[in-house]
């Protein structure tokens, strides 16, 4: 090999060596430390508090009604309650209705002709038709699943109607799909009353009611419940 050839080969080695050296320097530079910007802000004194449901009648208390001197074929009412939710969260309104015999048999001492027949509470409730049942101006009798043709033994079977007995003994299937009962209340899942919603009822003693119903009466109780969830 000539000296020139030897020099050329050596130069190539140097060049290759130089390339390797540069590559190593670049790798070393990549292993250096870098700084990143950052900033933070804090939100303190946050709170979580429970909301409230507060069912209140507009007058401060639920007034009672007395439908007295009722005669066959006559309608009494409607009686109206205005309900409010003074709480901070919306709810679902349920209504439970109960009827009890008030032992209204007259003994004649009041000057009213005596009536020795004490019609049972269920028979009397079946003789009383619910002619108006509304909430917020909307008819809600469609929630009542039952109907009657009157108390057996007192009325001749005719056309069916919604009675006070049907309202007080109304049942609802579980429609929520959660496997839980709908609370057993007679009217369920009514809208939140907000700042004021009227609940109205009117009744009529059916014209078929005869002398056996004279002086008999019922005590009727309406219980309104505002729940967080429908069917609760």
Automatic annotation (TrEMBL):
Residues 100-119 have a biased composition (Polar residues). The chain crosses the membrane at residues 15-37. Keywords: Membrane, Transmembrane, Transmembrane helix. Residues 100-121 are annotated as: Disordered. This is TasA family protein. The lineage of its organism: Archaea, Methanobacteriati, Methanobacteriota, Stenosarchaea group, Halobacteria.
């Amino acid at each position: 090999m000539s000296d020139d050839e030897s020099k050329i080969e050596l130069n190539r080695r140097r060049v290759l060596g130089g390339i390797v050296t540069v590559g190593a320097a670049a790798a070393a530079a990549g292993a250096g430390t870098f700084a990143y910007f950052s900033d933070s802000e804090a939100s303190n004194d946050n709170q979580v508090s429970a909301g409230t449901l507060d069912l209140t009648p507009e007058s401060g208390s639920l007034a009672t009604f007395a439908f007295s001197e009722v005669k066959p074929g006559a309608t009494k009412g409607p009686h109206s309650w205005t309900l409010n939710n003074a709480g901070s969260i919306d709810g679902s309104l349920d209504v439970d209705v109960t009827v009890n015999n008030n032992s209204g048999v007259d003994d004649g001492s009041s000057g009213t002709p005596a009536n020795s027949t004490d019609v049972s509470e269920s028979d009397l409730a079946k003789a009383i038709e619910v002619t108006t049942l509304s909430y917020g101006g909307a008819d809600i009798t469609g929630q009542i699943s039952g109907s009657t043709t009157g108390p057996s033994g007192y009325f001749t079977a005719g056309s069916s109607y919604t009675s006070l007995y049907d309202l007080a003994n109304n049942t609802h299937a579980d429609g929520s799909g959660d496997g839980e009962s709908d609370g057993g209340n007679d009217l369920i899942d009514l809208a939140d009353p907000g700042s004021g919603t009227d609940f109205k009822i009117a009744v009529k003693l059916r014209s078929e009611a005869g002398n056996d119903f004279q002086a008999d009466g019922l005590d009727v109780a309406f219980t309104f419940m505002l729940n967080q969830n429908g069917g609760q």
